[in-house]
Design brief:
β1, α1 and β2 (about 40-45) form a beta-alpha-beta unit. The chain has helices spanning about 25-35, 45-55, 65-70, 85-100, 110-120, 130-160, 175-190, 205-215, and strands at about 15-20, 40-45, 60, 80, 105-110, 125, 165, 195-200, 220, 230-235. By secondary structure, it is of the alpha/beta class. The protein is elongated and about 80 Å long. It has two domains: about 5-130, NAD(P)-binding Rossmann-like Domain (Rossmann fold); about 155-235, Rossmann fold (3-Layer(aba) Sandwich), CATH 3.40.50. The chain contains eight helices and ten strands. α4 packs parallel to α5. It has a six-stranded parallel beta sheet with strand order 3-2-1-4-5-6, sandwiched between helices.
């Protein structure tokens, strides 16, 4: 059963069971509890269960693949099976599906072969924590790189001693004009005046309409008496082609 097919969203689901509560399960449980969700945790490790109870969590000691556990969580909207090991996970999924086709089951799989077997048993989603961590790290890296490049851009703009001249390629299209307008707005936010220059003509009717409707101020490069630029930015152009 997929939550999307029932018209439910994950935000509307409020009762959860977590089977297997290692570091991943504990982190998920903390987040769900902080959001006010009702969470039942099952783990076979006595010490781990005792620690969870000390944190005021509803935790019970049992092997996750038993009939008793399947019966105990059959009324939960979502079951997250986060224990390591393919065999107990497959057995737990099968027992849950024997009792209900309505639960949304998310299970942990360590590799593609295990993931396929767990899906065949009836899990709606199979996740690989290592892949999730890697994806998260890559997204953080991409975000950090973008932030770093943005900081470099701002430093160049803020360091100009006069105006910022934004040069577009000959007969600019809407993509180039929009990029130039965005850069002009960034410069303005740092109290740097910027002019957008272009060669050729804005030939297509839709391009002229784009400029006129939005009131974008474009200056032909050949126009006399332009104030001198302190810094020049070249957008949407290929070097050494005569396109700029």
């Amino acid at each position: 059963m997929c939550a999307a097919t029932t018209g439910l969203t994950m935000a509307s689901l409020s009762t959860y069971a977590i089977l297997g509560c290692g570091s991943v399960g504990h982190a998920v449980a903390d987040e769900l509890v902080s959001e006010g969700k009702e969470v039942l945790i099952v783990d076979e490790d006595d010490d781990r269960v005792e620690t969870l109870r000390d944190q005021d969590m509803d935790a019970r000691q049992a092997r996750i693949e038993t009939d008793a556990v399947a019966d105990a969580v059959t009324d939960r909207d979502v079951v997250l099976i986060l224990a390591a090991g393919e065999a107990p996970t497959v057995q737990a999924v099968e027992k849950l599906r024997d009792r209900s086709t309505d639960q949304y089951i998310v299970a942990r799989g360590s590799d593609p072969v295990s993931a396929d077997r767990i899906r065949e048993a009836g899990a709606d989603v199979v996740i690989n924590p290592s892949s999730v961590i890697a994806d998260s790290a890559l997204r953080a890296l991409e975000s950090g790189e973008l932030e770093y490049k943005a900081q470099q851009l701002v430093a160049v703009i803020a360091g100009t001693d006069r105006r910022l001249g934004i040069r577009l390629h000959r007969s600019p299209d809407p993509d180039a004009i929009a990029s130039a307008t965005a850069l002009q707005a960034i410069a303005d936010s740092h109290d740097v005046e910027a002019d957008i220059h272009y060669d050729g003509e804005i030939g297509h009717q839709e391009n002229r309409a784009f400029v006129n409707l939005l009131g974008i101020d474009l200056t032909p490069t050949a126009e006399p008496d332009q104030p001198a630029d302190g810094t020049t930015a070249v957008l949407d152009s290929t070097p050494m082609t005569g396109d700029a």
